[in-house]
């Protein structure tokens, strides 16, 4: 968020050890999930952290393999170097702060560290934690992410980090795009069975995915998290005309509010909303929740740099 | 069901053409799903249909490939011949009635027929249809299957066949063992998040699958329909002590009753309950539904023979 639109500066919370600071020329933040890797490349110039460029690559979620994760991070670094007009930095010149999906699994985190190609410094956390660090500039706060998946996090004043949700699209991720997509598909199937009314929402799903059992089953057989999430906008489109769509979005709101309540039972922390589904549902959240919503100070890449600075 | 406990006879609804009856020595019923294939081997002796033996093999659900389906059916036939003390029949001597999962998909059914190894006669339907044919001896009636998956069927007096549910364990199969298993796993995850109370049901799931986020996620990553269904008995075990378990089973009952209502809106047909989950939930069904429950006349293999006779 702070780069490249501003020649951005993130104030370090603590200074690195003098020797290390000499060796490290590049400070890198990484945000890695199941679909994309984003990377931001900073250089320290006197008291300032100057953003040189950004790069993107494919998935670096640790559950898809640590070898792939390091490869994609390398590609994102190369892309950022191209944007910066630099040669690709050697790993030994780089300090990396990484927020990677799956890093909360200790076995995956250990395997990722074991495959370190020789970085000057490594700080690893889940992409959710770097998200909340970025959103509140490292200060206490809560973050609700509802995009393709969903998770809520809080960084409390006493240092506790609490995460709720994020159990994945098959069983969890309530209120997310994939969750809404699965629910509207169920509705379309039940409407075909005459168990649910065949209103505008069911008609819209049939028009998109097929109006027979065979067609819907074939669509489902070929679909994963992202494709289910692509159905979620139909629920928003139909909510004004179809009570089934409106009820479903209301249920999503309740599920997401329950996640926020579980990470911050005192309802005392400032809250950042992130993700397209959270943005579209925001007007339906309770007044009490909306009153705590603040504008994010930065994104997960800023959070990854903070993680590195405080490591 | 009629074999091998009784030297069983299923009265044919119609006689085969005289020429075909000469060529056909063996009459075979097949019930094929995603886990197993069951096959029953009959011989016509004068006016009687004598069951020679039964055989089992691996999955012959058409969605897993028609080549595999024919191989497993062949293996089940060989196993039945061994039980009968016969040589394995040549396909040309055999008339096959098949109730196979996936046969309601026209493309899969066509591919299966195209790979026919040379049977004297072939009659193909979904395993659900052979189930209802067997349950009511070919007469009008309804069938509710709730085991690992769930589906409801009705054969109406005017010949209409209506199926509801059976959309698969990822999005549908409401009230089934896998559906209950997924719901109890969600509850265990939410209890770990402090979104649900951690009562006896959550404790039981944690004891079985792990009491940390990492352990539960690992369990889910390795699990499919059958393994989720293996959690369903915990809901029954805990229902007396844990309101969450009792509510979940009540919701399963409502879902299954809605399926029965959708196949038989007049509530006029006799109903057979099939599957372990239906059996355990039976006492909780409404009195109106229970009043229509009858003892099955036969199983899906008997139904497959009826399908063949009426083809």
TrEMBL record, chains A, B:
Name of protein: Glucosamine kinase
Domain called ATPase BadF/BadG/BcrA/BcrD type: residue spans: 28-280
SUPFAM superfamilies referenced in this protein's UniProt entry, alphabetically: Actin-like ATPase domain
Molecular-function GO term, any one: glucosamine kinase activity
InterPro entries in UniProt: ATPase_BadF, ATPase_NBD, Euk-type_GlcNAc_Kinase
Keywords recorded for this protein, A-Z: Kinase, Transferase
Organism: Inhella inkyongensis
EC number: 2.7.1.8
Pfam family, one: BcrAD_BadFG
């Amino acid at each position: 968020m702070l780069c490249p639109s501003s020649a951005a500066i993130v104030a370090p919370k603590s200074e690195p050890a003098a020797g290390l600071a000499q060796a490290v020329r590049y400070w890198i933040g990484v945000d890695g999930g199941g679909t994309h890797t984003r990377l931001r490349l900073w250089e320290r110039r006197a008291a300032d952290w100057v953003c040189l460029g950004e790069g993107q690559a494919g998935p670096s979620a640790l559950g898809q393999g640590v070898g792939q994760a390091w490869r994609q991070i390398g590609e994102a670094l190369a892309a950022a170097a191209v944007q910066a007009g630099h040669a690709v930095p050697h790993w030994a010149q780089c300090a990396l702060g990484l927020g990677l999906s799956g890093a909360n699994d200790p076995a995956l985190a250990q395997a990722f560290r074991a495959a370190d190609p020789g970085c000057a410094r490594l700080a690893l956390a889940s992409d959710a934690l770097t998200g909340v660090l970025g959103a509140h500039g490292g200060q206490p706060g809560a973050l609700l992410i509802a995009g393709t998946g969903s998770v809520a996090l809080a960084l409390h004043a006493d240092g506790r980090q609490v995460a709720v949700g994020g159990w994945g699209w098959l069983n969890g991720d309530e209120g997310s795009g994939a969750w809404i997509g699965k629910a509207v598909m169920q509705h379309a199937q039940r409407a075909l069975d005459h168990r649910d009314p065949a209103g505008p929402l069911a008609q819209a799903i049939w028009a998109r995915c097929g109006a027979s059992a065979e067609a819907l089953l074939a669509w489902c057989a070929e679909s994963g998290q992202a494709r289910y999430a692509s159905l979620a906008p139909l629920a928003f489109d139909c909510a004004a005309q179809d009570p089934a769509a409106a009820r479903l979005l209301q249920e999503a709101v309740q599920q997401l509010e329950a996640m926020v309540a579980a990470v911050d039972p005192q309802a005392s922390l400032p809250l950042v909303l992130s993700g397209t589904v959270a943005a579209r549902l925001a007007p339906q959240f309770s007044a009490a929740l909306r009153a705590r919503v603040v504008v994010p100070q930065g994104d997960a890449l800023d959070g990854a740099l903070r993680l590195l600075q405080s490591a």
